[in-house]
Amino acid sequence: MKSLLKENDKAEVIERLRQIKPGSQRRWGRMSAHQMLCHLSDSFLAVMGEKAVSPATGLTQRTLLKWVALYAPLRWPKGVRTRPEVDQEAGGTRPIEFERDRRQLEQLMERFGRPPRDFEWQPHPIFGVMPERDWMRWGYLHLDHHLRQFGA
Description:
Number of helices: 5
Number of strands: 0
CATH topology: Four Helix Bundle (Hemerythrin (Met), subunit A)
Helix content: 40-55%
CATH architecture: Up-down Bundle
Distance between the termini: 19 Å
Radius of gyration: 14 Å
């Protein structure tokens, strides 16, 4: 099972991330490739406690949906709405400069996966409180989902 805890898996997503270009075409959704970079950065910042995100959770999301999303052998569905604070057409960070924003995302990925942590995990807006193993799985799957969105 792929996870940011595994160096090979982390190296794989970084290589795929570097394949994304400003003109990369989406296969689904509304975001541009540049907006996607900012969305992923915002998502990491939120769970590291550096960007406020409103919760959208209940018992079913924190248990059954979380298990299915993180551990069932299924790809995440296309078109699921995100929280407004990490939606690039609402309250998400606006793209500035593509390469700078990509470097920031790579730095956040490294910080997210590197112990000792210099942050405290914040509850995921949908899945709630999670142990490190689940965070590392979520990080990989979220990156994978959006990289596939742009053919990488």
